[in-house]
Write a structure and sequence with these properties.
heterodimer, A: 204 residues, mainly alpha, Rna Polymerase Sigma Factor, Chain: A, B: 182 residues, 81% helix
């Protein structure tokens, strides 16, 4: 965190909304990206990222300045997305949905980044991550897109380091198996697809 | 064929000793399952590394501010609604309790319906008498007061009272417009 961010945080703690909106601008990208990787949908990611910043603003007094602010923020985002994924699996009616009925989610509209969402790579990543349990997905996202160490992931997700290691191992195995399945399906549909994937590494 | 510990070595980040690396290499030459697993995992990792961070649509911070304002208003409205209901319930309970106490006192004091009617007639007569006395007093005042001041004195008094009223109205309007007051 730089000096400006420390000042904005101090001002936001005093209740200045404008100061916190600078923080929102500074951290919107990592928070949105995490939410997108977790939820797999741009509209849901926007809503989750907004909710993350609202929760952070409301509970700013709980933030320990001795810790990394980014870790604290991503921890809120991760837990929110994990809860949301778990609720998604339940067929029950959500009270939360009705509570926020008065708020109409904005239409993000087309942008270069949104156009990227339509890209084949993004779709494939989403399909791979969809096969993981919510917490395992959070572990993978934090490790590969945020380059967090085991210790940082454990701190963010309130897990032990050994739990992080075993979840990462399990997730890698599941991802590799999903990849093999995708490859097999694609080979049935398009037998020559293998040559068209530039990021694929050669076999041993 | 046994795939452990080779699967673990393939999927963990921990560095391998030279002996482990040699054993893994030998196993991979012979085991197609582990070779496919390692290859798939490396493909997934390459795909992840090639995918950049995503950005929200422009105006994210402004949308956040708008949502915060709307949510604050929603919270305030809900709080006012609750406070109104609680006040209404408390008042209703108070009125009911008072009514019960008065009723109990009333019926404890009197023995029969005739006695209650007599007391009511007596109270009504007393009330009418008091009203009549006040009416007489008012008539005397109306006849006496105009003589206390000259017409110009009454004009000055009216001017002072109306100026005071105007000043009060303006002060209240200004206070109502001060920030922090709804």
């Amino acid at each position: 965190m730089n000096d400006n961010e420390a000042i904005w945080l101090a001002q936001a703690r005093e209740g200045e909304k404008d100061a916190f909106s600078h923080i929102v601008e500074a951290y919107q990208r990592p928070v949105f990206s995490l939410c997108y990787r977790m939820l797999g949908d741009a509209g849901d990611a926007e809503d989750a990222a907004q909710e993350t910043f609202l929760r952070a603003y409301r509970h700013l007094n709980r933030y320990d300045p001795g810790r990394s602010f980014a870790t604290w923020l991503l921890s809120i985002a991760s837990h929110y997305c994990i809860d949301r994924l778990r609720k998604r699996r339940l067929p029950s009616f959500s009270i939360d949905d009705e509570e926020y009925d008065w708020w109409q989610p904005p239409d993000p509209g087309p942008s270069p980044e949104m156009a990227l969402v339509m890209d084949e790579k993004q779709t494939r990543i989403r399909q791979l991550l969809d096969g993981l349990a919510p917490r395992d997905r959070a572990v993978v996202v934090l490790h590969y897109w945020y380059e967090y160490s085991y210790e940082e992931i454990a701190d963010t997700l309130a897990l032990s380091e050994s739990a992080v290691k075993s979840r990462l191992y399990r997730a890698r195995r599941a991802l590799a198996e999903s990849w093999q399945l995708q490859e097999a399906q694609m080979e049935i549909l398009e037998p020559d697809h293998v040559e068209r994937i530039p990021y694929e590494t050669p076999a041993f | 064929m046994r795939h452990q510990p080779f699967e673990t070595w393939l999927l963990f980040d921990d560095p391998l000793t030279p002996d482990q690396a040699r054993a893994l290499d030998e196993h991979l030459r012979a085991c197609e399952t582990c070779r496919a697993l390692g290859h798939s995992w490396r493909s997934v990792a390459s795909l992840f590394q090639a995918s950049p961070d995503l950005e929200p649509a422009p105006g994210f911070a402004n949308r956040w501010k708008a949502r915060l304002v709307q949510e604050d208003q929603g919270v305030l409205t809900a709080r006012y609604r609750w406070q109104s209901w609680i006040t209404l319930i408390l008042i209703a309970n108070g009125v009911s309790l008072l009514g019960m106490l008065l009723g109990m006192t009333f019926f404890d004091t009197f023995d029969s319906l005739t006695e209650i009617l007599l007391v009511l007639v007596y109270r009504l007569t007393s009330l009418l008498t008091v009203i009549n006395i006040f009416q007489n007093l008012l008539a005397i005042l109306i006849r006496t007061i105009p003589g206390l001041l000259s017409p110009s004195g009454w004009a000055i008094l009216a001017l002072i009272v109306s100026s005071g009223s105007l000043l009060w109205v303006l002060s209240m309007a200004r206070l109502a417009r001060m920030p922090g007051r709804a």
